[in-house]
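Researcher: I'm preparing a figure for a lab meeting and need a structural model of a single chain. I don't have an experimental structure, so a prediction will have to do for now. The sequence is pasted below. Please return the structure as tokens so I can convert it later.
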Amino acid sequence: MCCCCSAADLYITKHFHPHNENNNETSAKLSVLRVYYEQRRTNTVSSDVKLYCKMSSDKTRFVLLCSEDVLRSQIIVTTLSMSAHLVQLGLQGKFSHIFLDEAGQAVECEAITPLALALPSTCVVLSGDHKQISPTVYCQKARQNRFSISLLERLFLYYKKLNLLSHNTVLLYKNYRSCKEILDFLSTTFYHEKQCLVASRSSKPVASENCKALSFYCTEGSDEVSESCSYFNMAEVEEIVQVVEQFVTSVPQQDICVVSYYSSQVCFMSILAISLLIQIKLRDDKCFLWEM
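Model: Understood. Here is the structure written out token by token.
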């Protein structure tokens, strides 16, 4: 099982580890190994995940797996980049199934790496949605040469051209995170099919005349690149903070979450929010930040 980031740990903490904890019989437990690179700091990994890692005898560092370790396990969890280590071990054809999670967000060269382990008989599953977040490619020349297209999207377009989508794709249309108003917008705008997504959440969002389930705010401005090669748009930052300032009069501050894909955008929102003395929960794709 391969993921494009450290979210691979969630499969252990949310699924594999609870399964093993709830089964007393040894035969029912899953044999799982998580692959980390040797320089990964051990204090950044949860204790539950460490149970499934190969570590040094003093537990101070991670150790790369050998082929015997892999062959003794049922499930190997790794990132796309670390799957190259499995290729170097010469394990082609040793896996019956290869799962690539969030394949729509991975650059194509990374997604291809674990596929080097496959044979024609291997079952390969790519999960994700190419209509959502695409691979982050900063180089304009690379984007012009379509390196920003994921393997998932490329295969989707290829199967669509051959009229084979019904044979090779599965659409999971039930959504447990968003409400009907948001999903109806996504259905018609991105999937070009009215109500193709169904909301299956038990609670409804808080809505009123001044607080709709879905609203749009237009801003002027342009994307800029920070020193860390992350994008930000100051016009958007100022608009977002002003909107949040309005919301805090009617919505509990702990219920407000600002989501941004770029870390620099989050940093600028944090600075501006502090200057306006707003307590706000700021989230990007990697971390949660609380500013008082």
